Amino acid sequence: MLRRILALLMVVATVVPAQANTSRIKDLIDVEGIRDNQLIGYGLVVGLNGTGDTLNNSPFTRQSIQSMMERLGVNTRGMNLRTANVAAVMVTANLPPFSTQGTRIDVKVSAMGDARSLQGGELLVTPLVGADGEVYAVGQGAVAIAGFQAEGAAARITRGVPTVGRVSNGGIVEREVNFAINRMASIRLALRNPDLTTARRIASAINDFIGAPTAEPTDPGTVNLKVPARYEGNIVALLTEIEQLRVQPDSAAKVIIDEASGIIVMGKDVRVSTVAVAQGNLTVTISERPQVSQPNALAGGRTVVTPNTSISTTEDGKRFALVREGVSLQELVDGLNALGIGPRDLIAILQAIKAAGALQAEIEVL
């Protein structure tokens, strides 16, 4: 009995790590045609408590108000409009794939003029168009904002961004995007992180499942899938089965550097050749201590301020640290941390190691 338990534990120990390194194909690819479509529109938000656009500074808001009022039968041409309760906004939304007429979507509004806040505003009917110029949805509703603004006679406080808001379920789909996925004879699977090895592994996993060479990687970012005869007219069932297959994704060794924030991300396959690294900081300190020369009262002179500058330099040098060839990512990080350096200096060291040809990875600077 004890031997059986030990054998079972050994099997679990070997299977779990293998499963932990694999991912579903669903998490690695996008199916051609199943995508969002971006919509945009121009509208007005009304009902603001004096925090809208200043019409003298926002002529587009004035023109929009006049055009809207004329469509409603009110003539405001030549009149002096002084309202501050209206703001011109850009309205954006994402149209989900296969959305049917009448489906509701969220819309986002952003002030265009000098409005101070959209709090309490109401978005008027706004057509939302796609890249082809056709209207696919119409947005309207109460605007909810995450920030706020409060002010008095001599002080103002602002939290968040009160000039950007959201209308939950404020868009109604009016036009559908025609895409008959069940009529397709072949499908293209687009890898979210293009890689030759990953593309071939995905194709192999699909072919093993189908039992026929139906999938073929055409480039690092695309796998072409021919629909088998038994799945003709039922591609949804085919994709449902394929999405659950598990493969082990591969990626090139990369070091990602964001110099603006000092963030460094290194992949697990990063390796270095044998290299010695030393780092030192040169600090120059300049101090000014002006001296005042005060003459004797009976000497008839004048008070003079003479400069007194003191300059000192210090160099904080770190001893050489040896990074051996073929070390793992953890050993590389430990070796660089042993120098006691910060992220900014680490960026310069990694770039210097790459320039010396000792870093076996690609450095990508954001």
Task: Give the structure's gist in a few sentences.
This protein is of the alpha+beta class. It is 21% helix and 37% strand.
Write structural notes for this entry.
With 366 residues, the chain is an alpha+beta fold. It folds into 3 domains: 37-173, no CATH class; 180-247, 2-Layer Sandwich (Alpha-Beta Plaits); 254-286 and 305-365, no CATH class. The protein is 21% helix and 37% strand. The chain has 6 helices and 26 strands. The chain has helices at 2-20, 59-71, 196-210, 235-243, 329-337, 343-355; strands spanning 23-24, 29-31, 37-46, 86-95, 104-111, 122-129, 135-142, 144-145, 148-151, 156-159, 164-173, 186-191, 215-219, 222-226, 246-247, 254-258, 263-266, 271-272, 275-277, 280-288, 291-293, 304-306, 309-317, 321-323, 359-360, 362-365. It has a 6-stranded antiparallel beta barrel with strand order 3-4-5-11-7-6. Strand 16 (254-258) and strand 17 (263-266) form a beta hairpin. Mean pLDDT is 81; it is low at 1-18.
Name a few traits of the molecule.
single chain, 366 residues, alpha+beta, Alpha-Beta Plaits, 3 domains, 6-stranded antiparallel beta barrel, 4-stranded antiparallel sheet, 21% helix
The geometry reads as flat
Count of individual helical segments:
6
| Termini Cα gap | 57 Å
Which structural class fits the helix and strand makeup? alpha+beta
- Arithmetic mean of pLDDT: 81
Main location: other
Signal peptide: 1-20
Family: Belongs to the FlgI family.
Keywords: Bacterial flagellum, Cell projection, Cilium, Flagellum, Periplasm, Signal
